[in-house]
Amino acid sequence: MEQPEILSTLGVQPERQSEIWCNYIAHLFNGLKADTYGRESFSGVIQHREIDSLKLCKMKAQGHRVLHSINPNSSSSTSYYKVVLQHSGFSDFEQGGHHIRLTPGNWAIYDTSKPYQISAPNSIELLILAFPKKYITLDDCYMKRISGRKMLPSIGINQNIYDFLFNAFDLLESKDEKTTKRISDTIVNLFNLTLTSYIEAKRRNSLPETLKYRAIEYINKNIKDHRLSVGMVARHLNCSKRYLHMIFSDSPSTITEQIQNIRLNNVYSELINPNLGDVKITDIAMNWGFSTPSHFSKLFRDKYGVSARELRKNHDKQNDFNGRINLTLKKQ
Predict the structure, then answer these.
(1) Strand intervals (E) in the chain
(2) pLDDT by residue (tens digit) across 132-162?
């Protein structure tokens, strides 16, 4: 089997390391946007393998974050699920109203056809696996409930799949095609067994989970309504605000914070969309449910460390840089 592709900032001029790292992320993950919290110098390495349609990546890097927004011009015709296994450090993951924190031993599966954000302010080590949706045997209705949820390695197959995947990357070294295919099939089978076990466990405690799912669904549907609040969600579900807070108690953020995060992520996605460059920042923010520009500005800076105006300006510069790089490569 071929040696893994290795992408590293080692040997790159310090002032270009962050730019190069962001280009690596975009190259490996279909245009995924990354930023390094304003750093210029950056240390990171990715080892990458492909087995048929499976993609395996080992990553060790300083703190950074990635954002995936829907790209209407994307040429990719294959829908993927992606799995992140946290080996060291922690990562905050957000998708569709779910906000979880992954710590060593945790993992999560999510749908790459939907927007998401992963933030890791400190150094991390991860294993990332991507595979076509057709490999998963669970119905879509169940996968919607699993996507973006934190999986713990504490019992049964969860611990097995966690350990096996970290070892599998090295087991593939110099293996013949038949053995490689057997390992990839084992990976897929382990995931299907794990996800089925998770659904069965959730069925035994279905009422809170069902209400939580309905709450998130309602929040996403009404996210542009500036009146959206905990009380509004509770009235829709015909439950008390206290009970609603209780079923979200295992999340790292409150319901109000999750509403704010969904809005901020959508604003972020539109600010970096070159097709919306002429739309005023205030108009974008108000469209996603923020009631005042000052409240939006404070929340945005607190979450991303820069103002919305600075983000749009820096992203325009990055696009210009990438355009010059691509033009240079075409001429070579």
Answers:
(1) 5-8, 33-35, 44-51, 54-61, 64-68, 80-88, 91-95, 98-102, 107-111, 116-120, 124-132, 150-151
(2) 888 888 888 778 878 887 776 654 456 666 7
**pLDDT at site 71:** 58
Helix axis angle for 255-271 and 206-221, nearest 10°, is 40
Nearest partner of 192 among 133, 240, 235, judged by Cα: 133
For residue range 60-96, what is the model confidence (pLDDT) as tens digits?
A: 999 999 999 865 455 444 588 999 999 999 999 988 7
Q: To which residue do tokens 């998130």 refer?
A: 216
CA distance 34 to 23: 8
For residues 102 and 120, give the distance between their C-alpha atoms in angstroms, rounded to a whole number.
10
Within 10 angstroms of residue 46's Cβ, the number of other Cβ atoms is 23
Return d(Cα 268, Cα 310) in angstroms, integer: 12
Token pair, residue 209, equals 């989970």
Question: Which of 143, 98, 104, 140 has the alpha carbon at shortest distance from 118?
Answer: 98
Can you give the pTM of this predicted structure?
0.68
Phi, then psi, of 38 in degrees rounded to 5:
85, 0
Alpha-carbon distance 119 to 116, whole Å?
10
